[in-house]
Write a structure and sequence with these properties.
The protein is of the alpha/beta class. Helix content is 44%, strand content 15%. The chain folds into two domains: 142 residues, Rossmann fold, CATH 3.40.50; 303 residues, Aldolase class I (TIM Barrel), CATH 3.20.20. The strands form three sheets. A seven-stranded mixed β-sheet has the order 2-1-3-4-5-6-7, sandwiched between helices.
Length: 480
Amino acid sequence: MARILWVEKQIDYEPQGIMSMSAVLKEAGHEVGLTIAAQEDPVKFAKDFRPDIVGYSVMTGSQRYYFNLNREIKKALGDREPMAVFGGPHPTFFPGMIEEPGVDGVCVGEGEGPIVDLANSLSNGGFRPDIPNWWFKVDGEIVKNPVRPLIRKLGDLPMPDRALIYDKHEATRISPIKHFMASRGCPYNCTYCFNHAWYQIYTREKRGYQRSVDSVIEEVLWIKERYPLEQVVFLDDLFIIFVDWLEEFAEKFPKEVGLPFFCNVRANLLTPEKVALLKKGGANSVSMGIESGNDELRNDLLKRKMPRDTIVEAGRMLDEAGINLTSTNILALPTATLEDDFATMRLNAEAKVKYAHAFLFQPYPATELGEFTQKNGLMAGSFEDIGAIAWDSSIIIRDPKEKLQMENLQRWFALGVEFPWLEPFIRLAIKVPHNVVTDTLYWWIHKIFKGYAITHRVHPIRLNWRTIFKQIIHYLRMEA
């Protein structure tokens, strides 16, 4: 038996990958632990747990934090120094990070099979460097293994190990809003997304595949019987892509589960039939990407291939069905102007968006748009300068005054969608230079309205006072 310790900086909502890998590890007879740096000393926890493997799931922007923490953990464990392995988006697309001091292994792609094979090899008396999906550092040499096929029968995987998270993180455990995955993959090639790079790794794989409706319902019911659950959130990239699956879901889910749910949709996939199925199934809110109100930016730069009228019509259909629409939007795109961002704000209002999430563009490596930005000298610094969050500052090179206003607009964007008559005031407010007073004030304005919209529109459920207090504290502490 091997001992595996997952290390997380903080928990926003259930980390699906870690829960799935923990489940397959436990099924194989291994022991799994979790430490959350936001609520305890992860170095001390690691010393007490004494893992054989310490694992990190890493997004671009957070890698330096985990590199530093990993070196502290390995040093503290001394003669029982664990094998440090990294997986997730950043290691998958930049496996060259294996060269970083303290990094022993990098997992490329899906992790369930690779982590079990590694744990099995260590517990069977020896390390094997030829495990598919892994890059290993062995005696100063880098061993690069090919990837195995993607997991197609998702229903054959054990149920995600939610106790790993819920036993450790009270705010997530007591929340009546819980997150699920009903599918993996996406067939589209939006330039700001990693999908095209993912399928350069998995060159002959079908794009997008779903679990059976019955296995999804089984998991939701298992949670409903054991933990508070009033709102189901599906994190899938595209929940509505297969109409026959959606028909079965809409028939079974309200009868067997009977809870409202949230999912992601795409404007050009929405039809009156699919909207009716979402309503029948119990959807009370959905999210779709609008991204930009400028047609050229949206369709050419971002490759969304989505007319303005399609977005507005999708919003109208959802509004008439009584399904609250939230959106995602990217401000400060390379080659964009401040007026483009205001056009995005107005398009959200026209599409009857009930809460508009706005992010500042980050040129993530391995994405087509990230590479375009770097190649054309539009980025200040390198990929290492990208922050862990996408709503504080932009690293795109542009006029400093316009950059300031775009950054400030991120805080006011949702209110501008909600109250279009505020635009003249917002144009004045975003000209204020960054300083502690206004930055703090704008942050609170943004945070309070977001909290209101989420609790009253996105996930409109009743909470007791204890849960409300715990969730407010958790919400305000989160970097998000």
